[in-house]
Every structure is written in structure tokens, then in C-alpha cells.
Specification:
It contains 3 helices and no strands. It has about 80 residues and is mostly helical. It has one domain. Helix 2 runs antiparallel to helix 3. The N and C termini lie far apart (about 30 Å).
């Protein structure tokens, strides 16, 4: 679920899907990824797990706290 969500986010960034999908898909994808990391902590090497958690948190902070969207990317 997280992988599919992040692929959808890439399509939103590329402009192939509506920008309105950005926030809900980003939050659900990051949440699903964090849930997977918590439920299966030994599925990946420690540094991969830490890196994935850092990316998930960065996405949530950017979207929820800073209200960032791909529309702010330079053309």
C-alpha cells in the first residue's frame, strides 16, 4: 500500500494526476509505511529502517506542518 501510494505521489509531482490528491495520498502512504516499519521492525537492515522512517517523517512534516505541495516546484 505504501509503495503504490508513493508511486501515485510521483505521478502527482509529474503532473499526471490531480494536485488535489497530494495531501491525502502523502499522509496515508507515509502512515502505511510507518505502520509497516512498526509491525515488522526486523524486515530490513537497521539503517534502511531508520532511513525509511526519516523519509516518512519528512513527508509528513512537509505536508502537514509546512503545507508544501508540488505546485511550489520551479517549472
Amino acid at each position: 500500500m505504501a509503495l503504490v501510494g508513493f508511486v501515485v505521489l510521483a505521478a502527482v509531482v509529474m503532473g499526471w494526476l490531480p494536485l488535489d490528491w497530494w495531501v491525502p495520498v502523502a499522509v496515508v502512504s507515509s502512515g502505511a509505511s510507518i505502520a509497516g516499519l512498526v509491525l515488522f521492525p526486523s524486515a530490513f537492515p537497521v539503517f534502511s529502517t531508520i532511513g525509511a522512517l526519516a523519509v516518512d517523517i519528512a513527508v509528513l512534516v512537509a505536508v502537514l506542518w509546512f503545507h508544501w505541495s508540488p505546485a511550489e516546484l520551479p517549472a
